[in-house]
Amino acid sequence: MNKIFEIPLYPYERSPDQDPPSVARHKVIVVGAGPIGLGAAIDLAQQGIEVVILDENDKVSFGSRAICFAKRPLEILDRLGCGQPMVDKGVVWNMGKVFFDDRKVYDFNLLPEEGHQRPAFINLQQYYFEEFLVNRVRELQAEGAPIEIRGRNKVSAVGTHPDHVALEIDTPEGSYNLEADWVIACDGAGSPLRAMLGKDFVGRVFEDNFLIADVIMEADFPTERWFWFDPPFNRGQSALLHKQPDGVWRIDLQLGWDIDKEREKRPENVIPRLKAMLGDDVEFELEWVSIYTFQCRRMEQFRHGRVIFAGDAAHQVSPFGARGANSGLQDTDNLIWKLKLVMEGKAPDSLLDSYDIERVHGADENILNSTRSTDFITPKSEMSRMLRDAVLDMSEHYEFARPLVNSGRLSVPCTYDRSPLNSADALDGPERTRPGSPCPDAPLGDGFLLPRLGDRFTLLTIDADAPDRIEEDGIEVTRLALSVKDDPTLALKERYLGDATSAVYLIRPDQHVAARRASFDETLFRAAIRRATGKE
Amino acid sequence: MSDLILTPNIDGADDFYAELLATHEGLETAESNALNARLVLILSNHIGDRGVLSQALRAARLQEEE
Ligand SMILES: Cc1cc2nc3c(=O)[nH]c(=O)nc-3n(C[C@H](O)[C@H](O)[C@H](O)COP(=O)(O)OP(=O)(O)OC[C@H]3O[C@@H](n4cnc5c(N)ncnc54)[C@H](O)[C@@H]3O)c2cc1C
């Protein structure tokens, strides 16, 4: 049986663009059909913006890379029309165990907050994730949306011009040229576009190798995240076991720096390692094995004129904390509405610079978190190992030490504090919904809040009056009128009012708060709209 | 923010010091170091106040307060 990652999902087809004389010009070209490029293109097409995705390959990600997808990206995927199949297929988990040496030191329950449509995390193979995104592309095409994927179209040269970007593309039938008003570079960690523009970057390479194996087994391990520090079967190193759909299990084994990668990857060397971990009597089959070295780094700037970088092309983190694909989707969530307004002439070009500011801030937060996890997992000095072991030893006995254990701080979205798009906070309300924050979900009768926000500017009023519609210099804002009574669980009140009795929120198309105050004030909200669109 | 206490604050200083030494008695250096690491973490958690902890970390490096 062929695995999904072996089947060409977007096989090469000749495009009329390949037949000169004239070079075709597209509105937006997305380079790379990984999770981030697909997400960007779907968002554009849903908003009616013409987009072509180019990928040098024609299949989804080979084998398994990302497995752990957090609530925020699932909410973004809901807005992109493909959250449900992911959640339906994914494995939901909340429980975890931490082992040190030969014993379990504690277990934990993530205890996700109630009143959210989406779970805190699901585990899902990246190839499914990409497949569902490609399905969504096909669905949009069937509806007549202006979106196209071209497989085996490899970008080999780029030229930047004041009013467009020129690309040279290699295909099985030779090369051709294209032009685009805008290019979104989602061409992955090794980003050829980044190199072509001379924007390659250095960063911190963790001198460590990880064996990542996906095994198929009928085992009765529970749906939990198990993490080992210094276990007998992998002395001095760490290990992780995590469940994926279809009876596939993810195993990460830290191997250290001085190893022979090719040798370690061979089944005759991998299988004994896994047997030592799983026990001799567990039957398993290897689906995919690879060895990775991780880096934490980012580009200095994500925007270079009309070429905008997103996802791994712009920043990379170690996988402890599941921040790669998760944060990449937050990039495109931030970018697409801004690009749309700029393309329609409704916002100044400088609005795109706020993408840079906000997502560089996000990347720095992710890099910081992922660096700290890596430093805990792989102590860099004798003293840091001693402190690490002290934390682990005590975590078995004393609850206080458990929050210090760091096997990855799982991805949460960042708040764009100090963003130039925020208006000063004018509500004595909860911290978590201050300007810059991603809107937390809340139950509303038989539905939820988030599906009613997004794609456009919204004026969310809670027990407050406001016009149903305002237009400020081309930006249309529609009202969503709610009352604390709409949510008997009081989550809405707790998350959006706190001690206040009423509130008016200006919410961006990416579901982040731009401004808030206790009541509607036309002048101030018009100023907030201008500010949120880069006009003040 | 409260200030780190750097003036005498332990009743029966000699007794405390003897108890600290006794706790390490019979331990190899590595075990003693591990014990100290645990002790630092236990005491830090007890203090809890991040401002005081930062002052203590600086004080332990014998760095002058800015
Ligand atoms: C072992 C491992 C575990 C991980 N676990 C997680 C996790 O649990 N959660 C999480 O969120 N993230 C995780 N990640 C990170 C995640 O896989 C990446 O962040 C994610 O794939 C980035 O997506 P992307 O679209 O930016 O890049 P990619 O997925 O790398 O896609 C780039 C695309 O660009 C195409 N391309 C490249 N060059 C060209 C060119 N010249 N022309 C045309 N196309 C080109 C490639 O063919 C590819 O399809 C993990 C990664 C690894 C390795």
TrEMBL record, chain A:
Region (Disordered): 421-440
Flavoprotein found in the keyword field: yes
FAD-binding domain location: 27-364
InterPro entries, per database record: FAD-bd, FAD/NAD-bd_sf, RIFMO-like
Protein keywords: FAD, Flavoprotein
Keyword Transmembrane helix: no
Cofactor: FAD
One MF term in the entry's GO annotations: oxidoreductase activity, acting on paired donors, with incorporation or reduction of molecular oxygen, NAD(P)H as one donor, and incorporation of one atom of oxygen
Matches recorded under Pfam families: FAD_binding_3 (PF01494)
Top-level taxon of origin: Bacteria
Cross-referenced NCBIfam families: PRK08132.1 (NF006002)
The name this protein goes by in its record: FAD-dependent oxidoreductase
Organism: Antarcticimicrobium luteum
From TrEMBL, chain B:
Pfam families for the chain: DUF2783
InterPro entries reported in the protein's UniProt record: DUF2783 (IPR021233)
Identification of the protein by name: DUF2783 domain-containing protein
Biological source species: Antarcticimicrobium luteum
Lineage: Bacteria, Pseudomonadati, Pseudomonadota, Alphaproteobacteria, Rhodobacterales
